[in-house]
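User: quick one, sequence for these tokens?
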């Protein structure tokens, strides 16, 4: 069986989508579906249960996927190893990143890396934090970028950099006129918070409790973009990593206020599977991140602002505001 077919099948499963797998492999969606159908005909079994939405793997499909994934992975590792004999970075690396890192920093890192290594094949995916861990654990990604990285029995982590946290408000909020505030000044304030299951929310709650500060939770969201949209309509203030609000601060839609006397930092880390030897391309990409850490400030001023009517985060906040009122 052609290796390309095995890769397409693995991509369909890992991406949980025929269309995304088709895009990754430069074929049509019907072409990806046909490849899987041909594999099923060859094996005489159903690999995917298409009667469910989204599709699920059958028992035979799970077994076949695990085997194919190892074959495809080993093949690319072998290619990478051979190319590295000539010190040429031309292999493939999959990087899974949380949105707040991916949207603001990773595009520049990716462009710089590909400029230095034009033959490298880098796929960057933006996922929910839990999905980043799952992707690395399941060998669907070589590297993961997360906040508050944790080490486990199956994963190793290292801190990439630390981002200062600032208080963020709308320009019309009373605190916006201040250059700095203490954490105690947040007592009784309405806050737009991260969802309680996220590491950043647990850390913020811990610090506020340490300072005997109680706040009024106005809204909760699982991503920074939606939190910023809520702050813009003055639903409350929030504690956010400074690099993630530079664009809005420059445009004047948000204000950032320093924390006096306290330095809160959000650690950003890289995770990879324990015991798995990184390919030469993955190692080079990791090295490029470490080299650039000292000057990671992104060019927020050049980022385009999404019109309010087209921004799903703004629409979500607007709907939430209706409910709260």
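Assistant:
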């Amino acid at each position: 069986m052609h290796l390309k077919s095995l890769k397409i099948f693995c991509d369909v499963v890992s991406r949980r989508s025929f269309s995304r797998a088709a895009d990754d492999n430069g074929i049509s969606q019907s072409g990806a579906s046909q490849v899987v159908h041909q594999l099923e005909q060859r094996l005489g079994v159903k690999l995917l249960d298409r009667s469910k939405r989204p599709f699920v793997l059958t028992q035979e499909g799970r077994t076949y996927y695990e085997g194919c994934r190892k074959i495809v992975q080993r093949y690319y590792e072998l290619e990478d190893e051979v190319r590295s004999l000539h010190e040429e970075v031309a292999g493939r690396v999959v990087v899974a990143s949380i949105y707040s890192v991916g949207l603001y920093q990773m595009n520049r890192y990716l462009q710089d890396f590909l400029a230095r290594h034009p033959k490298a094949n880098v796929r960057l995916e933006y996922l929910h934090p839990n999905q980043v861990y799952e992707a690395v654990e399941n060998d669907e990604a070589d590297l993961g970028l997360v906040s508050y990285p944790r080490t486990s029995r199956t994963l190793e982590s290292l801190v990439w950099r630390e981002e200062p946290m600032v208080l963020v408000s709308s320009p019309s909020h009373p605190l916006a006129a201040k250059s700095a505030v203490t954490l105690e000044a947040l007592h009784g304030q309405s806050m737009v918070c991260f969802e309680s299951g996220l590491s950043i929310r647990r850390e913020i709650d811990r610090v506020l409790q340490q300072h005997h500060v109680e706040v009024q939770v106005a809204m909760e969201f699982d991503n920074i973009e939606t939190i910023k949209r809520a702050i813009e309509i003055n639903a409350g203030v929030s504690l956010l990593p400074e690099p993630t609000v530079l664009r809005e601060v420059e445009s004047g839609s948000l204000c950032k206020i320093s924390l006096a006397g306290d330095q809160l930092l959000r650690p950003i880390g890289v995770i990879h599977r324990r015991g798995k030897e990184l390919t030469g391309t993955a190692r080079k990409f990791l090295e490029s991140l470490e080299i650039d850490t000292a000057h990671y400030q992104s060019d927020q001023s050049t980022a385009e602002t999404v019109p309010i009517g087209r921004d799903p985060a703004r629409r979500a906040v607007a709907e939430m505001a209706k409910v709260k009122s």
